[in-house]
Amino acid sequence: MNYGTQISVSGILTALHRQDVATNNLANINTVGFKPQLAMTRQRDPVRIEDGASGIPSDAMIERLGAGVHLMPSLTTFGQGTLRTTGNDLDIAIEGDGFLLVRDASDGSSDRVRLSRDGRLARNADGLLVQASSGLPVLDRSNREIEIGQGPVEIDEDGVITQGGAKVAVLGLVDVENRRELKREGEGLYAAGASDLNSRTQATGRIRQRALESSAVDEIDALMDVTSAARDVSANLGMVQYQDRLLDRAINTLGRVA
């Protein structure tokens, strides 16, 4: 594979990844609390730098042409989604920064605390407050599961839950210092490292009862990203085919003349 083809192939691979990310964003325009991702790339270093071969002679002009692109970890943007009123007592939205605490015991451990912006809550058969979508228990500020009774529920902007005028619990509404380190796990869940969880802070956002946060995806931007990535795939494929034709001509025409 020649140098030009390598650059074009790297462009194809990164454009395909960008297309996948944008398509996933577009598919989640109706997912409660969904935060879109940004596909990140960077220019690939010249071989001399990439391989640490600083003593090997090189050509500065060729190096300035670049060596294609590399994929970087995608970034999640945590911009606010639109709040919409539902009228359901157990629907809550976070206005501003912050995450709910939920416990994911799918691996048999009771210590897997996860973060979420999905405020669709429900009362399960055991009387626990859970996420309606995943069934995972929602936790209070002390990482304890919350029991609620039958009947109307009131949740104020600080997450204080009351029933019949009596305080039941306070929702865990937290934030972490470095959101870039959060790992998406599906179902609207984010995993934080132990150090981030231990140093978590009280969130500055506020709870809005009887409302849900819509997806933060802009469908027009997402559609344009999908289209742009598809064009880049097509353009790079065209360059690969063009280089193949040139190589074929060099071998079968110029080579025969020589």
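(ticket continues) Second input and output from the same batch:
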Amino acid sequence: MMSVFSVTWIRRTGLAILPAAALLLAAPTAVADNMFTRDHGGPPEERGALRICADPNNLPFSGAGEVGFENKMANLFGESMELPVEFFWLPQRFGYIRATLRSWMDNERRYRCDIMMGVPQEASGLTTSTPYYYTTHMLVFKKDHPVLSELEQSNDLLTIGLPADLKIGAFDRSPANEWLIRNGLRGHLKGYVQADGDIGFYPGKVIEGDLAEGNIDAAIIWGPIAGYYAQQVTEETGQEFTMLPMQSDVRAQFDFGVSIGVRAGDHEMMRPLQVALREHEDEIKALLDEFNVPQVDRPERRRR
């Protein structure tokens, strides 16, 4: 099962493997003891609103002004369920789920928010919907790169013979970082710190900045981020990019089903969300296409 800490960071940088206890150990004991015992709040209509946990600076997923595709999806659900949508804005950092889905407000007798968009289906500690898309990490490079333009698939990195000074960007503790090191490409790795203390940081800067400016030759990054920012740079500068899906194996999972998450056991909230997902399937597909989110076939189940 995927840890709740991983839920936060896969959305930003592609982190996939950390101890499941990491986030819970960060929570105060009183919160950890009580977070599964309080009443979830009843059906959505009794809660008075759809309250969404959202990052104000995490495009293409969410952004202040409700400009991300997950913000737009949430508003579709609100229309379908005839409820107002309220976003609880908080930057995604360590302790995010504790500070959002599991943050109880005694004065209002409710949690700060009830719904987290875009979590891996395998996330532990949450009840998740059926996936509404499947995506993977992408290897991104300029289309006219003198060496990488020869690649037909991402695994060709291992066989074409890379120049000594070629650099590939990847976030620390991500499956991409581990894959590069395990396959003897440590010397080509340009590492990025995912737990950056700057709340203005967003992972798309790797593409907008270092990749577009030629400071690195390629980046391995979570698919929705790769697709959106590659498209943005192309529209702004005319530079074109190639994106190749990373290929999972028994030691590295790059592809995931993406779902909606609620607190574990909150089936009264999940049931109408499942209905809304089915009702808005076409609109969701259109949003994913608009934001250039790469989509892949449903991943095969892999033994660990």
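Agent notes: The chain has eleven helices and 14 strands. Residues 135-245 form a domain with the D-Maltodextrin-Binding Protein; domain 2 fold (CATH 3.40.190.10). Closing as not reproducible unless the customer responds.
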